[in-house]
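Researcher: Before we compare anything, I want clean individual predictions. No alignment, no superposition, just each chain on its own. First chain goes here; please echo the sequence and then give the structure tokens.
Model: Echoing the first chain and its structure:
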Amino acid sequence: MGWGHWHPEEEPCIPRPPRGFGRHARAHHHHHRRRFHLGRLGSFVQARLRRRLFVMFGITILVTVLVVSWVMNLTGGNTWRQETERARSFVGHRFAEVWDAPAARESLVRGISDDLDVDVELTDLSGAVVARGGSPCAKPDATIPVMRQDTQLGTLHACYLQTRSRGPWRAVLPLGIAVLVLWTAAGGISFRLARPVDTLVKATQELGEGRLGARASLDRHATGEFAVLAESFNDMAARIEKQLADQRELLAAVSHELRTPLARLRVLTELLRDGGGNPRTLDQVDREVVELDALVGELLASSRLDFGQLTPKALEAGVLGAQALERVGLSATLLQPETDDVALMADATLLGRALVNLLDNARKHGVGVEALRLQEHGKEHLAFSVEDRGPGLLPGEETRIFQPFYRKDRGGEAREAGSLGLGLALVQRIARAHGGEAFAENRPGGGARVGFTVRKAGPPGPASNPLA
């Protein structure tokens, strides 16, 4: 590629970092916050925490009821039984006093039945009813022996449960209502306790997705621990945003500053060449300038991936391939599409950089480009691959060539070819950013095939820059 053929698309646009997160950036950020929906992780954490708090509160309430009932039974049960025995003894003695007076006996039975609303039957030792108050008592709820000294005169049978509340649920209902009210209040408390966690999870997800302006904003009712945690998170996010903004600004400034002297050096070498300078020296200077310019381009493209600066748009894979071949000075006839479905959503600048790197790698290390192929890779992916005419890959190089700064060292041709060891590593990063993967293999007929896949529907997850 000659220096006179300048391609603006080769230099990614690195936006200036926001100072103070300006008005437009804040509006854009709040728009993203309104559009943000709780992810699977946040929903799981929120639901799990609320459910656990709710169940724990319910168990605590039930255990409290049982413990209180047990304690009341221990402290008041003996007293209740003693009072019951005293009442039974009192009633038995009253009937023993009037046992020999039928009229008084009948009057006492009717009085107890009317005053206490109890069905009463008084029987003698043979079981015959000698007095009755109320309805017949078939299944007595209480049986009181009528004793005179140590001799039993008869038995008093009392039925009172039938005249009381018909449903035992009426006795349990107040307790059930109290438990339900307490458990409902526990649900509200658990929701209130889980809400700050939900806010922190959402802010963490936004920061992890590249929205560096994400902050955790808790209401004034948040507990002290959550407020401290939110403050620590916001401080961490602010530091990360500032450091990355400073790094981006420095990278952009250095890159642009380097491009200017490089352009001047290239112009000077052209002037010296025209003026009769030493061609070999000029070629060496020109090669170093090209290498530095390529390094700047690789760093700029890498910085876009570091900061999530992907701008997907509708593209044609065939057009991208033809443009890449033209940029490296190769014939468009090397493009061999093997599928009709060549539409995809991708970042044109980054994808073009990846194709140029593949073609440059084939020219420098593969003795020339045999073909640039477009192929289907499953239903969702499209594959770009470059076939070369070289000796192929060494054992283990199928993965090592994608490592940063890895150079093929065969007689020192790597340095002479101007290899930086970053081109294929960048190809792999671009492929992964587009939901694909890089690959390399030897061809059966000789040479190597190096390429990458991309997702046709576009990069997975949020790809646009929220600060742009």
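Researcher: Okay. Second chain, same rules.
Model: Second chain and its structure:
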Amino acid sequence: MSEVHMAEEGPGKVQAAAFNCVEGSTEELAEQWLKVRERLRAEIGDVEYKTWLLQIVLGPLEEDEVTLFLPTRFLRDWIRGQYGDRLEALWRAENALVRRVELQVVRPATAVPIAEPAPDSTPAASTPRDRVEMGEENPSNPGPEARHDLAAPLDPRFTFSSFVVGKPNEFAYACARRVAEKPSSPGFNPLFLYGGVGLGKTHLMHAIGSELTQAGGVSVAYMSAEKFMYRFIAAIRSQSTMEFKEHLRSVDVLMIDDLQFLIGKDNTQEEFFHTFNALVDAGRQIVVSADKSPSDLSGLEDRLRTRLGCGMVADIHATTFELRISILEAKAQASGVVVPGKVLEFLAHKITSNVRELEGALNRLIAHANLFGRPVTLENTQDVLHDILKAHDRRVTIEEIQRKVAEHWNIRLTDMSSARRARAVARPRQVAMFLAKHLTSRSLPEIGRKFGNRDHTTVMHAVSRVQELMERDVAFAEDVELLKRMLEG
């Protein structure tokens, strides 16, 4: 998110910010902030809200920039990466003047919070700050109910019956069905699903969980690897690691999505490894998904990669044209809206890499037809989906950027993710990070992971360094602009 700023202020600036927050904030601004928070809370749920967003404090609105205060750098970085874009969008919806959101690290006592509607069990005079200080809603001191609410809910839409099977995913589908019918079968524990983004890994995991839950008598815990890590961190902060361990190791089926997120997180990997062993040794089922096979997940400990590969490994290939058509036909039939075959073929040709995006495009067409009572035609399809089609036409991947930059400066492609710091390698790598930031929609942490699991702050430094060099060195700026035009074209 390019317009969400991060800052860490000194004591003098903190006091000035607190004064501006009190003097400059109007009742209208406070009401807008409450609406933004409530909408975000409704979207992500109470548990996530209380764990990560409760401690945000409203600061001043100066020109087109609103400031939000956070007590720690950890919270600031986490909220920026996970909710920054959404916060900005919600602010714009409430106040047309707001164009940017700045996140600052400020001691909690320095800024004045905006009161929220209190729950029925809390006196009306009590503010979130009061409740945090009393320990009632403190993320570092969650109550028993919050501590045990570790797993994410299963999506009822993702079932085996709604999964469209084709040659690219039929093996993964068959393995998932087998696990749902007979958990912990020999050779199928763990089940490791891997494939690109939006190809159906998460769908199959939810389908397994739903099938087992409906059968009854089986406890299922599903969560992303990211949530596993942050739940583990929260358990450490609240001194409840034993409860965290006992809860996860007591389930019959544990499902962890997007395991690649644990790359570089050594302590969390170790905890997952011990949880993995405890469950498998007890005859419990584990299902894991990632974007690569276990052997290709460099950055995971060898012992963990070995254990992950000892069960059933099933890949989901990129969709074929026929499979995309089948998915669109099934979706259109379920909606009750007539979508001509030419439109389905057009979408299947245009959107090839991501099933989620494909379904999202069809959903928008269906919604447009229902809202305006117009038939779906090829002409209005191009009009309604112009932004998606345009973005898809000029989409650039980080891998393409790395290849083009490596060719331009005559370095090896592996240097993009290596630890080498020689200038002849480091400068092209910084340029590749700069182009990835400007030509893709990937977040800074995602870009860092593509460059040898580097931290997002390394990417930020690379972007600012390339910008500085472009301002000083005309020849260098021309090189970067040439690469940018070649990639966009």
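Researcher: What stands out in the second chain?
Model: The beta strands are 4-8, 57-62, 65-70, 100-105, 191-195, 220-224, 253-257, 285-290, 312-316. Additionally, The first strand starts at residue 4 and ends at 8.
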